[in-house]
């Protein structure tokens, strides 16, 4: 199959830091899997996107969600809890991608059924490596149930 024949993987990035959004976009552009990286800037937008409400009415269902914990209006823990309680959304893999290394955040995220917890590296090469690892594992190795 040529790259042109592949169906793009839909990724939702919920992140309020513009610098981290740019790093993630650049990392996914350099990746091996054709993808559509969709970005929302807070938890309220993330839930609107996932429920296809308002301006997100025609948004595609993500194959993977990258979720920051510290966002305005509705934090990542609240978003994760709502996703995992929603029968239509709970099977979408959610990877926590955050600057927090706090043990409490790690435990709480797994208690809320996060699929993975990754700490953002501070430099671009480290960030690129983390995003490439996410892409390799979640978008090429893992099989997820259909919608």
What does the model show?
The chain is an alpha/beta fold. It contains five helices and five strands; from the N terminus they run βαβαβαβαβα. It has helices at 18-29, 43-50, 76-85, 103-111, 124-141; strands at residues 9-14, 35-40, 64-67, 94-98, 116-119. A five-stranded parallel sheet has the order 2-1-3-4-5, sandwiched between helices. Strand 4 (94-98), helix 4 (103-111) and strand 5 (116-119) form a beta-alpha-beta unit. Helix 1 (18-29) packs across helix 5 (124-141) and helix 2 runs parallel beside helix 3. The longest helix is centred in the last third of the chain and has 18 residues, at 124-141. The mean pLDDT is 89.
Q: Please tally the β strands and state the result.
A: 5
| Integer average pLDDT | 89
Largest sheet: 5 strands, parallel
Per DSSP, the total helix count is 5
Overall outline: globular
Q: Helicity level, as a percent range?
A: 25-40%
Across the major sheet, the strand order is 2-1-3-4-5
End-to-end distance, in Å? Answer: 23 Å
Q: DSSP strand (E) fraction? A: 15-25%
Helices and strands: which structural class?
Answer: alpha/beta
Rg estimate, integer Å: 14 Å
Q: What order do the SSEs take from the amino end to the carboxyl end, as H and E?
A: EHEHEHEHEH
Are there runs of 5+ residues with pLDDT below 50, and where?
Answer: none
């Amino acid at each position: 199959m040529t790259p042109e024949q592949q169906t793009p993987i839909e990724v939702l990035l919920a992140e309020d830091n513009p610098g981290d959004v740019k790093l993630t976009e650049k990392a996914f552009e350099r990746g091996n899997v054709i993808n559509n990286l969709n970005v929302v800037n807070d938890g309220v937008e993330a839930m609107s996107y996932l429920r296809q409400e308002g301006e997100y009415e025609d948004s595609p269902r993500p194959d993977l969600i990258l979720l920051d914990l510290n966002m305005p209006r509705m934090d990542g823990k609240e978003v994760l809890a709502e996703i995992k309680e929603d029968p239509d959304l709970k099977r979408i893999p959610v990877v926590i991608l955050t600057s927090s290394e706090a043990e409490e955040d790690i435990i709480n995220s797994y208690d809320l059924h996060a699929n993975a917890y990754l700490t953002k590296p501070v430099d671009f090469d480290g960030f690129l490596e983390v995003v490439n690892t996410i892409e390799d594992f979640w978008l090429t190795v893992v099989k997820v149930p259909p919608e």
